[in-house]
């Protein structure tokens, strides 16, 4: 596997988390509410959203079904600009944007920039 492939996989993992979080928040669901609907834990949902956890395809399908996401949308790599927009829109949906969350989003944006630069 080339370095480019590894970077693309990292970006897709980040993208999956960003899309899921955006869609979850846009539907007014907490991680806990989503986890109950698909019979998993809120910790698992959080790890997927933060791209800390590679989940299996079964969980992704269940999440996509609950949030009405076409699964293909998760795996077709968006541009840097599109991912940054998803993050900005997610920030707008946050009910409580703590300093910690703001720092997380800023570091996520930088991480995406870095990964795209390595492609």
From TrEMBL:
Identify the domain of life. Bacteria
Q: Where is the HTH cro/C1-type domain?
A: 20-74
Per its UniProt record, what PROSITE patterns does this chain match? HTH_CROC1
- Which Pfam family name is an example for this entry? HTH_3
- Cite the InterPro entries for this sequence: Cro/C1-type_HTH
Name of this chain's protein: Helix-turn-helix domain-containing protein
Organism of this sequence: Mesonia aestuariivivens
């Amino acid at each position: 596997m080339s370095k480019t492939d590894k970077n693309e996989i990292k970006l897709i993992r980040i993208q999956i988390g960003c899309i899921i979080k955006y869609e979850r928040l846009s539907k007014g669901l907490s991680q806990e509410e989503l986890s109950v609907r698909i019979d998993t834990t809120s910790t698992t949902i959080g790890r997927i959203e933060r791209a800390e956890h590679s989940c299996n395809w079964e969980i992704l399908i269940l999440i996509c079904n609950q949030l009405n996401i076409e699964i293909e949308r998760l795996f077709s790599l968006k541009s840097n600009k599109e991912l940054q927009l998803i993050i900005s829109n997610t920030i707008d949906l946050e009910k409580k944007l703590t300093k910690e969350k703001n720092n997380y989003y800023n570091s996520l944006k930088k991480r995406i920039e870095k990964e795209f630069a390595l492609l």
